[in-house]
Amino acid sequence: MNYTILKKLPSLQEMISDYPLSHTAHEKIEKDRQEIKNILEGKDPRLLIIVGPCSAWPKDAVLEYAEKLLTVNEKVTHALKLVMRVYIQKPRTIKGWMGPSYQPNPFGAPCILEGIRYTREMMVKIVEMGLPIADEALFTHNFRGFLELLSWVAIGARSAEDQEHRIFASFIDCPVGIKNPTHGSLAISVNSIVASQAKHVTFFENDEIETHGNPYAHLVLRGSYYEPNYSISHLSEVKKYMDKHTIKNEAIIIDASHDNCLVNGKKAYQMQGEIIFNILDELKKYPDLKKLMKGFMIESFIKEGNQSMNADFVDLGGLSITDPCLGWDETEKLLFSLANKIEMSV
Predict the structure, then answer these.
(1) Which residue ranges make up each domain of the chain?
(2) What are the pLDDT digits (tens) for 259-273?
(3) What is the CA angle 262-287-258, rounded to 5?
(4) CATH 3.20.20.70 fits 24-345, yes or no
(5) For tag attachment on the chain, is the N or C end more exposed, with fewer CB atoms within 10 Å?
(6) What is the pTM for the complete model shown?
């Protein structure tokens, strides 16, 4: 085998027991998952908003952000279902920092054990505050110990065509948003939803199992290499493919960041609010597409923008070290304005 064992890890149960989740928090997660399912089914008219840092680091700043978001959540919950991004794994186009679950100190050596402790403690604290959280399933083999904490799961653009990730989405009892691939094909994007909603025979640990299919697998449009993909023509194309395949609970979340906010090849992250409001205004003319669109994803942190990991000084006060984010003041303004707009339209 072409690897070297670096160290033995404690059992999963030992690691979970170090940072247990209360019974009340378990019940809250089940409630949050059901509320998200109700939104995807069309039983709940609120918008689903996945909002938070590009990457969940450093811990103290992430927890500070969670406290701020919790206060806003109490005031907008009638119109918006807020789920905080707590992304502990980062896909890389080539190579780089893979997130705090692998390297809790981005400027130190990787350490899986410390990463698990660092991220589970952080996630448990946020859930115990009362906020639902989301993460991306970058690797499917290490989901235990974290999946129980999540109310929404993302399958990223680079994983969407991978059969293992599609089976994983079929396997779990949690709403899963699957992004379109980076090349942007909407037909292939819907194929991922079809596969995730289907049953599969596979193996899990020592058992041959049949997954039940996930009727709450849905599409996240995040743009492509060459253009945004939230226009009416893009949404209409998605609708056509979903109708063709008889998708259960047809639903789209629009990622207002990533390639949907590129301008001349550069990420104009400040445009996220403008993109959201433009989409909502356009959808007034298209009731079928408005029914399909269930929410938005927003990259946001305490401080606006981002910083280089190669800088001599690293700001630990909530400035992203990966993608640039909206700052807190702009985020708060956006969420209140969005809640008011939804309230007025009901």
Answers:
(1) 24-345
(2) 999 887 778 999 999
(3) 15
(4) yes
(5) N
(6) 0.96
